[in-house]
Amino acid sequence: MEERLISKAVISRLPVYLRYLGELKDEGVEKISSKELSDLMHVTASQIRQDLNNFGGFGQQGYGYNVSNLYNEIGRILGLDRRYNMILIGAGNLGSALSGYQSFENRGFSFKAIFDSNHKLVGDSIRNIPIMDINVMPAFLENNKIDIAVIAIPKTAAVSVVDTLVKCGIKAIWNFSHVDLDVPEDVVVENVHLSESLMRLSYNINERVKEGAE
Predict the structure, then answer these.
(1) DSSP letter string, 168-182
(2) CB of 139 within 8 A of CB of 173?
(3) Between 3.40.50.2300, 2.40.110.10, 2.40.37.10, 3.40.50.720, what CATH number should domain 85-196 receive?
(4) How far apart are CA 181 and CA 188, in angstroms?
């Protein structure tokens, strides 16, 4: 049976659904209609139904959605019903912030080691996660099952580090370096460009200013 291709736009909305459903679940809400969910999320009820129908729908006519069940199903679709072992490359300001973010652990993403080329940092730890010399990373990967590598280093070093990660069998990379990575097709890369996000915010502010001046 041919797999149905799900658009990136739909996939990008799934974590948003999960966040809102998690808040509803914490508030003790047991069921919700697509209209009520659309009012919360500012997405049309039709869009919500279309998105969820890509995965089976999950709703009941005249009842709506069971909040807890839908939360669990979306979590399963996103792969949050399992745990992921991660390593972090880069123990600078950004890396320190990422490794200290407790929500990752709560979602099942656990940092097992941090690697850096700065010998002043090697031997220290962040939240009990050891900082190790970047040169021992291949040996560590050989002896430990790691699912995701997080890159938080300057782009000048990122390419060679990623080459090493690929050779060591890493298949998923979360890239915070300002560089486009050339990796094999079987390696998944999620790029996070913080400066681009800030520039989009700057554009929207500028547009609001223009509207106010008219």
Answers:
(1) TT--EEEE-SSS---
(2) no
(3) 3.40.50.720
(4) 10
Assigned token pair, 173: 């990379």
DSSP H helical ranges for the chain? 8-26, 34-41, 45-53, 67-77, 93-99, 102-106, 137-143, 155-167, 194-213
The CATH number assigned to the domain with range 8-77 reads 1.10.10.10
Mean pLDDT of the chain: 91
At 137-189, the pLDDT tens digits run 999 999 999 999 999 999 889 999 999 999 999 999 999 998 889 999 999 99
Question: 38 and 73 in contact (C-beta within 8 Å)?
Answer: no
Backbone angles phi, psi at 59, to 5 degrees: -95, 165
- The per-residue pLDDT for range 85-115, each reduced to its tens digit, is 999 999 999 999 999 888 898 889 999 999 9
Percent of the chain with pLDDT over 70: 97
CA 3 → CA 13, 49, 123, distances in Å?
Answer: 20, 20, 47
Task: Determine the residue type at 80.
Answer: L
- Contact status, residue 159 vs residue 97, Cβ threshold 8 Å: no
Q: Where are the domains of the chain?
A: 8-77, 85-196
Residue with tokens 């009842």: 63
